[in-house]
Amino acid sequence: MAEFRVPERHAQLLEYAQSLTPPAGWKVEISGDEIIMMAGPSVIHQRNLLVVREQFDAHRPAGLMPSENTDLASPNVGKLRNPDLTYIPLSVVELGGNEVPAGLAAIAVEIVSVSNPENDLVGKVRDYPLMDIPLYLLIDPRDGRITLFSEPAGGSYRLQWNGAFGDTVPVPDPFGFELATGGLIRYPS
Length: 189
Hints:
Order of helices and strands: HEEHEEEEEEHEEEEE
CATH superfamily: tt1808, chain A
Shape: globular
Strand order of the largest sheet: 3-6-8-9-10-11
CATH topology: tt1808, chain A
Number of helices: 3
CATH class: Alpha Beta
Helix content: 10-25%
CATH architecture: Alpha-Beta Complex
Strand content: 25-35%
Structural class: alpha+beta
Number of domains: 1
Largest sheet: 6 strands, mixed
C-alpha cells in the first residue's frame, strides 16, 4: 500500500484538531483552514442511517467494509471529513491510525443534520469530489429529499440524481442496486 503523506499545513491543523476535547457526542472535521465541530446525531438520524446501511451491507462488494464516522483524509487538498457512513477497503487496517485516505472510499453517505445542514449541503458537496470520493449519497430528513452525486471530475460531481423519500435510488457499481427509501422518516416540523 502506498505511503500516505500529510502536507505541513494540514498536519498542523490536524494536530490542533486532535488536541481539542470536544463535548461528549461531538466530532471534529477539517475543510481547508476551517475546523468544524458538530453535535452528535439524533435518534431519527441514526434510524435513517440504519435503513440505508442495512441495504448497502446486503450489496457490499467483497473486500469493502462499512465504517461509521471514519476520518477520511485528503491532505493534498486540505480536507479531513467524517461521513456518517462509508465503505472502505479491508486493507486499510494495515495503515493503522485513525485516518483513511479519502480516495480509497467507495462512497460517503450523509444524513443532513438539523444543527448544521450547510456542512452537508454545501461544504461536503464541494469537498467530496475534491477528495476523489466517487459517490456521495445525501439524505435530507428536513424536507424528505435525496441526492446521489457521482462521477467526480475537475473538482465537482458531473452527475446528480434527485428524488424524494419513497423513491428508489439507482446506486451504481461497485454496489449496483436499487436503494429503497420508503422506510426513511423526516424530522418533525
